[in-house]
Amino acid sequence: MPSHSSRVDSLVPVTLPQPEVAAPNPVSEQIPSTSGVSVPSPGGRSGRQGVPAAPMAPGGRQLMPLIQASVSPATWQAHGKAWGDWESMVGGRDVASSDDLRLEVTVKWLLQLRASGVSASMAQRRLSGVAFHFKLRDWPDVTRRFIIRQALRGWRKELVYRECRRPVSFNLLGRLIAKLSDVCRSLFEVALFSASFSIAFFAALRIGELVAPSGSRPGGLSCADVVLGNGALRIRVSRSKTDQFGSGSWIPLHPVPGVSCPVRLTSSYSSMRGPGHNFLAHADGSPLTKFQFTSVFKSCLELSGMNPREFGTHSFRIGAATEAAKAGLPESEVMRIGRWKSACFARYIRPDLL
Predict the structure, then answer these.
(1) What is the pTM of this model?
(2) Which of 50, 140, 113, 56 is nearest to 87 (CA)?
(3) What is the pLDDT of residues 230-263, one digit of tens each?
């Protein structure tokens, strides 16, 4: 059983400047470096050694809180990490003064990603993060150059990447829950993970909607998000990847036969838990984290005779969509279950991998 203090690797943050009371000077407006050290005015060379100053687009500094709010927290952090990795390739050169130099650094960075085995789709996402920071600095976006776009096309053909995470089927879910008594150290932990596995599957939740990212960072289901009564269970997703304005949505769950019933398992766990904000929490009140959920999940997979490397936390959501389609539900119902807004849900239906 993983320690409650287990850490989740943190992404490189982007430090937000505070709005100034005085009238802004567009020429001297700066975006801070991802190291958290203030970047000097143009022409200065203090701060993070080797990283030149970078003027933002006029008004950018005052609008940074709104710019951050325009994307999800996960995307904001991913963009910051991509930028930090790109910055590490600069090597003291004045990239603010030359498009060609920024292109050279970008090419070197992409080659490093390729050598490390990163897929083309992941490289594209990281490249989008770098492009985001180029635009914040009002630099021409060299990631749109022909050579970059063509190289990515070749990358996709050379390293054919197919999303192959296997779904957690209804039958596998029952086997995983049955193995928890061999993985967890107490009946409370068995009840906690049984409820979390069942809710993840039947509510088709993303991991960030279910549990906290770490012990020190808030997130996941709160007690107010879980309502039990009249033989049913309601789960509220207060904010999600496709609901950045926090409108929220309620997901009704009903009893199902077998050991994985979400109503029975959640009710059993709820009767044992103590007070606290996070609904899914350990006996000492500390929140269940993504790292702990993943560790126990992989241990149960291994004990069930499955290859843990073929699964991920998204496998519960994939399994919900696959089982719904397998049962003959119409596309509109599958989309409702997973709260999908477009036809992208079709990528989650993988009966051949059950």
Answers:
(1) 0.57
(2) 50
(3) 889 999 998 766 655 667 789 999 999 999 999 9
